Amino acid sequence: MLTTLPVRQFLYELSQGSATPGGGSAAGLSGAQGAALLAMVCHLTIGRPKYADVEADMQVALDKALRLRDRLSELVEEDAHAFDSVMDAYRLPKDTPEQKAARRAAIQAGLKEATRTPMETLQACVQVLELAPDVLRKGNPNVISDGGAGVLSAHAGMMIAALNVRINLNAIKDQDFVQAQTERMHALLARGDAAKETAWALVAQRLGM
Predict the structure, then answer these.
(1) In whole angstroms, what is the distance from residue 153 CA to residue 29 CA?
(2) Are the beta carbons of 167 and 118 closer than 8 angstroms?
Protein backbone atom coordinates (compact mmCIF):
# COMPACT_ATOMS: atom_id res chain seq x y z
CA MET A 1 0.00 0.00 0.00
CA LEU A 2 1.19 3.49 -0.83
CA THR A 3 0.55 4.88 2.63
CA THR A 4 2.75 2.23 4.26
CA LEU A 5 5.76 3.20 2.16
CA PRO A 6 8.57 5.24 3.72
CA VAL A 7 8.29 8.90 2.70
CA ARG A 8 11.36 8.68 0.48
CA GLN A 9 9.97 5.61 -1.31
CA PHE A 10 6.56 7.23 -1.82
CA LEU A 11 8.24 10.28 -3.36
CA TYR A 12 10.29 7.98 -5.57
CA GLU A 13 7.13 6.24 -6.80
CA LEU A 14 5.47 9.62 -7.37
CA SER A 15 8.39 10.78 -9.52
CA GLN A 16 8.38 7.79 -11.86
CA GLY A 17 6.96 7.67 -15.38
CA SER A 18 3.88 5.61 -14.51
CA ALA A 19 0.39 7.13 -14.32
CA THR A 20 -0.04 6.12 -10.67
CA PRO A 21 0.53 7.27 -8.06
CA GLY A 22 -0.07 10.76 -9.37
CA GLY A 23 -1.80 13.99 -8.52
CA GLY A 24 -4.88 12.32 -7.07
CA SER A 25 -2.82 10.41 -4.53
CA ALA A 26 -0.85 13.58 -3.77
CA ALA A 27 -4.15 15.38 -3.13
CA GLY A 28 -5.18 12.77 -0.56
CA LEU A 29 -1.83 12.96 1.16
CA SER A 30 -1.91 16.75 1.30
CA GLY A 31 -5.41 16.72 2.77
CA ALA A 32 -4.48 14.03 5.29
CA GLN A 33 -1.49 16.08 6.35
CA GLY A 34 -3.76 19.09 6.86
CA ALA A 35 -6.13 17.07 9.04
CA ALA A 36 -3.19 15.67 11.02
CA LEU A 37 -1.87 19.16 11.74
CA LEU A 38 -5.27 20.27 13.01
CA ALA A 39 -5.31 17.17 15.22
CA MET A 40 -1.92 18.23 16.54
CA VAL A 41 -3.37 21.60 17.60
CA CYS A 42 -6.20 19.78 19.37
CA HIS A 43 -3.81 17.42 21.16
CA LEU A 44 -1.71 20.34 22.38
CA THR A 45 -4.81 22.07 23.75
CA ILE A 46 -6.65 19.17 25.39
CA GLY A 47 -5.62 18.43 28.97
CA ARG A 48 -4.14 21.85 29.66
CA PRO A 49 -5.84 23.72 32.51
CA LYS A 50 -5.55 27.02 30.65
CA TYR A 51 -7.90 25.70 27.96
CA ALA A 52 -10.27 23.70 30.17
CA ASP A 53 -13.29 25.69 29.01
CA VAL A 54 -12.82 24.55 25.39
CA GLU A 55 -11.66 21.01 26.08
CA ALA A 56 -14.95 19.35 25.14
CA ASP A 57 -15.11 21.25 21.86
CA MET A 58 -11.51 20.41 21.06
CA GLN A 59 -12.11 16.73 21.75
CA VAL A 60 -14.98 16.75 19.24
CA ALA A 61 -12.73 18.54 16.74
CA LEU A 62 -9.94 16.05 17.37
CA ASP A 63 -12.21 13.11 16.63
CA LYS A 64 -13.33 14.74 13.37
CA ALA A 65 -9.76 15.57 12.35
CA LEU A 66 -8.58 12.03 12.96
CA ARG A 67 -11.46 10.54 10.98
CA LEU A 68 -10.71 12.88 8.08
CA ARG A 69 -7.00 12.08 8.29
CA ASP A 70 -7.73 8.37 8.06
CA ARG A 71 -10.25 8.71 5.22
CA LEU A 72 -7.92 10.90 3.18
CA SER A 73 -5.13 8.40 3.75
CA GLU A 74 -7.38 5.69 2.30
CA LEU A 75 -8.10 7.90 -0.70
CA VAL A 76 -4.38 8.07 -1.50
CA GLU A 77 -4.61 4.37 -2.32
CA GLU A 78 -8.11 4.43 -3.80
CA ASP A 79 -7.22 7.11 -6.31
CA ALA A 80 -4.34 5.05 -7.68
CA HIS A 81 -6.58 1.98 -8.02
CA ALA A 82 -9.34 3.98 -9.71
CA PHE A 83 -7.03 5.35 -12.38
CA ASP A 84 -5.42 1.96 -12.88
CA SER A 85 -8.86 0.72 -13.98
CA VAL A 86 -8.95 3.44 -16.64
CA MET A 87 -5.54 2.39 -17.91
CA ASP A 88 -6.71 -1.24 -18.00
CA ALA A 89 -9.67 -0.17 -20.15
CA TYR A 90 -7.38 1.59 -22.62
CA ARG A 91 -5.43 -1.67 -23.00
CA LEU A 92 -8.50 -3.66 -24.09
CA PRO A 93 -8.42 -5.05 -27.65
CA LYS A 94 -9.91 -2.94 -30.44
CA ASP A 95 -9.64 -5.18 -33.46
CA THR A 96 -13.36 -5.52 -34.18
CA PRO A 97 -16.29 -3.09 -33.99
CA GLU A 98 -17.62 -5.05 -31.00
CA GLN A 99 -14.29 -4.81 -29.20
CA LYS A 100 -14.05 -1.11 -29.94
CA ALA A 101 -17.52 -0.51 -28.51
CA ALA A 102 -16.75 -2.55 -25.40
CA ARG A 103 -13.48 -0.70 -24.95
CA ARG A 104 -15.16 2.72 -25.27
CA ALA A 105 -17.79 1.72 -22.71
CA ALA A 106 -15.14 0.44 -20.30
CA ILE A 107 -13.11 3.64 -20.66
CA GLN A 108 -16.14 5.80 -19.95
CA ALA A 109 -17.11 3.71 -16.92
CA GLY A 110 -13.54 3.87 -15.65
CA LEU A 111 -13.38 7.63 -16.09
CA LYS A 112 -16.58 8.08 -14.07
CA GLU A 113 -15.12 6.00 -11.24
CA ALA A 114 -11.84 7.89 -11.51
CA THR A 115 -13.86 11.12 -11.11
CA ARG A 116 -15.64 9.88 -7.99
CA THR A 117 -12.45 9.33 -6.01
CA PRO A 118 -10.90 12.80 -6.39
CA MET A 119 -14.34 14.31 -5.81
CA GLU A 120 -14.48 12.52 -2.48
CA THR A 121 -10.95 13.71 -1.77
CA LEU A 122 -12.03 17.25 -2.61
CA GLN A 123 -15.02 16.97 -0.27
CA ALA A 124 -12.92 15.62 2.59
CA CYS A 125 -10.38 18.43 2.16
CA VAL A 126 -13.25 20.93 2.33
CA GLN A 127 -14.39 19.31 5.57
CA VAL A 128 -10.87 19.75 6.97
CA LEU A 129 -10.95 23.43 5.97
CA GLU A 130 -14.38 23.89 7.54
CA LEU A 131 -13.08 22.37 10.78
CA ALA A 132 -10.06 24.67 10.87
CA PRO A 133 -11.59 27.99 12.01
CA ASP A 134 -12.99 26.53 15.22
CA VAL A 135 -9.74 24.71 15.99
CA LEU A 136 -7.66 27.83 15.35
CA ARG A 137 -10.01 30.08 17.28
CA LYS A 138 -10.07 27.89 20.40
CA GLY A 139 -6.77 26.04 20.15
CA ASN A 140 -3.44 26.64 21.82
CA PRO A 141 -2.03 29.80 20.17
CA ASN A 142 1.53 28.51 20.57
CA VAL A 143 0.88 26.11 17.67
CA ILE A 144 -1.07 28.51 15.46
CA SER A 145 1.62 28.23 12.78
CA ASP A 146 1.13 24.46 12.67
CA GLY A 147 -2.61 24.98 12.35
CA GLY A 148 -1.97 27.45 9.55
CA ALA A 149 0.21 24.89 7.81
CA GLY A 150 -2.71 22.46 8.08
CA VAL A 151 -5.02 24.98 6.43
CA LEU A 152 -2.63 25.51 3.52
CA SER A 153 -2.07 21.78 3.12
CA ALA A 154 -5.80 21.01 3.09
CA HIS A 155 -6.44 23.82 0.61
CA ALA A 156 -3.68 22.51 -1.65
CA GLY A 157 -5.24 19.04 -1.45
CA MET A 158 -8.61 20.51 -2.39
CA MET A 159 -7.23 22.30 -5.44
CA ILE A 160 -5.20 19.29 -6.61
CA ALA A 161 -8.27 17.07 -6.30
CA ALA A 162 -10.28 19.57 -8.36
CA LEU A 163 -7.67 19.38 -11.13
CA ASN A 164 -8.11 15.62 -11.23
CA VAL A 165 -11.89 15.89 -11.29
CA ARG A 166 -11.72 18.37 -14.16
CA ILE A 167 -9.34 16.41 -16.38
CA ASN A 168 -11.50 13.29 -16.07
CA LEU A 169 -14.71 15.22 -16.78
CA ASN A 170 -13.13 16.61 -19.94
CA ALA A 171 -12.94 13.07 -21.36
CA ILE A 172 -16.44 11.90 -20.33
CA LYS A 173 -19.17 11.89 -23.00
CA ASP A 174 -22.18 11.75 -20.63
CA GLN A 175 -23.01 15.45 -20.46
CA ASP A 176 -25.60 15.07 -17.69
CA PHE A 177 -22.94 13.43 -15.53
CA VAL A 178 -20.40 16.11 -16.46
CA GLN A 179 -22.79 18.95 -15.62
CA ALA A 180 -23.83 17.45 -12.28
CA GLN A 181 -20.25 16.77 -11.23
CA THR A 182 -19.07 20.20 -12.39
CA GLU A 183 -21.76 21.90 -10.32
CA ARG A 184 -20.85 19.79 -7.31
CA MET A 185 -17.17 20.60 -7.75
CA HIS A 186 -17.78 24.35 -7.94
CA ALA A 187 -20.02 24.26 -4.87
CA LEU A 188 -17.38 22.42 -2.87
CA LEU A 189 -14.62 24.77 -4.04
CA ALA A 190 -16.68 27.78 -2.96
CA ARG A 191 -17.18 26.27 0.49
CA GLY A 192 -13.52 25.38 0.81
CA ASP A 193 -12.29 28.79 -0.30
CA ALA A 194 -14.61 30.53 2.16
CA ALA A 195 -13.46 28.34 5.05
CA LYS A 196 -9.82 28.82 4.09
CA GLU A 197 -10.20 32.61 4.08
CA THR A 198 -11.81 32.56 7.53
CA ALA A 199 -9.14 30.25 8.92
CA TRP A 200 -6.28 32.17 7.34
CA ALA A 201 -7.56 35.46 8.75
CA LEU A 202 -7.31 33.92 12.22
CA VAL A 203 -3.75 32.78 11.56
CA ALA A 204 -2.76 36.19 10.22
CA GLN A 205 -4.34 37.96 13.18
CA ARG A 206 -2.63 35.72 15.74
CA LEU A 207 0.77 36.02 14.05
CA GLY A 208 0.54 39.73 13.22
CA MET A 209 0.89 39.10 9.49
Answers:
(1) 9
(2) no
CATH number at residue 42: 1.20.120.680
Q: What is the DSSP letter of 44?
A: T
CB 100 within 8 A of CB 94: yes
**DSSP per-residue letters across 121-133:** HHHHHHHHHHHHH
Flag whether 3 is in a domain: no
Would you place residue 169 in the very low, low, confident or very high pLDDT band (cuts 50, 70, 90)? very high
Number of domains in the chain: 1
Closest by Cα among 17, 23, 40 to 149? 40
- Residue 30 is assigned to a structural domain of this protein: yes
pTM for the predicted model, two decimal places: 0.92
Q: Is residue 26 part of a domain?
A: yes
115-133 per-residue burial string, b: 16 or more CB within 10 A, e: under 16: bbbbbbbbbbbbbbbbbbb
Contact indicator for 27, 118 with CB cutoff of 8 Å: yes
Instruction: Please determine, for residue 28, whether its predicted confidence score (pLDDT) is greater than 80.
Output: yes
Q: By CB neighbour count within 10 A (0-12 exposed, 13-18 middle, 19+ buried), where does 198 fall?
A: middle
Report, as an integer, the average pLDDT of 15-25: 83
Collapse the DSSP code of 51 into the 3-class scheme (helix H, G, I; strand E, B; otherwise coil) and give the result: helix
Structural domain including 88 reads 21-207
- Would you give the DSSP letter of residue 80? H
The predicted pLDDT at position 17 comes to: 79
